[in-house]
């Protein structure tokens, strides 16, 4: 039962993010939460705290306006004081040049009493870097 509740909450947060609500995950964040977006990309990051988390999310939404996330699977394990959650995501956006961006990612999070304490994300960085380059090229052509 607890796992189903957590999975529903995780799905709800991703749905709200697809609607442009960057505060949905930030509201879950503990004051000392740690975040890491793995890889060698413009948006790769490692930091601590909700303020940095919000700033990073805002940057992602500026880079990919209208980005949408599809939760494909959620696995929950553990107890309320140490909950581990694995999420498989589909990512979809329309780039500035009109071409589609589709990617996949996995997220591994830890919750303590419903608060996000650790968030680790791995996206296909080769696909992501190509999309970032297309965004930059399209924006450069408009300027």
Count, helices: 4
CATH class annotation: Alpha Beta
Order of helices and strands: HHEEHEEEEH
**What's the story with the biggest beta sheet?**
6 strands, mixed
Unreliable stretches covering 5 or more consecutive residues: none
Q: Which strands sit side by side, in order, in the main sheet? A: 2-1-6-5-4-3
Share of residues in helices: 25-40%
Task: Compose a concise summary of this entry.
This protein is α+β, with helices and mostly antiparallel strands and 143 residues long. The protein has helices at 2-18, 23-28, 50-63, 125-142; strands spanning 29-37, 45-48, 68-79, 82-94, 100-112, 115-123.
Description:
This protein is α+β, with helices and mostly antiparallel strands and 143 residues long. The chain has one domain: Roll (Nuclear Transport Factor 2, Chain: A), CATH 3.10.450.50. The protein is 38% helix and 42% strand. It has four helices and six strands. A six-stranded mixed β-sheet has the order 2-1-6-5-4-3. Strand 4 and strand 5 (100-112) form a beta hairpin. It starts with a helix and ends with a helix.
């Amino acid at each position: 039962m607890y796992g189903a509740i957590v999975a529903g909450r995780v799905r709800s947060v991703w749905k709200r993010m697809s609607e442009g609500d960057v505060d949905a995950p930030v509201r879950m964040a503990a004051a000392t939460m740690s975040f890491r977006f793995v890889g060698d990309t413009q948006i790769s990051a490692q930091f601590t705290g909700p303020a940095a988390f919000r700033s990073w999310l805002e940057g992602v939404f500026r880079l990919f306006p209208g980005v949408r996330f599809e939760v494909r699977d959620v696995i929950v394990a553990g107890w309320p004081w140490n909950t581990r959650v694995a999420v498989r995501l589909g990512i979809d956006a329309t780039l500035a040049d009109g071409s589609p961006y589709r990617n996949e990612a996995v997220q591994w999070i830890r919750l303590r009493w419903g608060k996000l304490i650790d968030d680790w994300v791995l996206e296909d960085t080769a696909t992501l870097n190509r999309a970032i380059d297309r965004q930059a090229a399209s924006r450069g052509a408009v300027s």
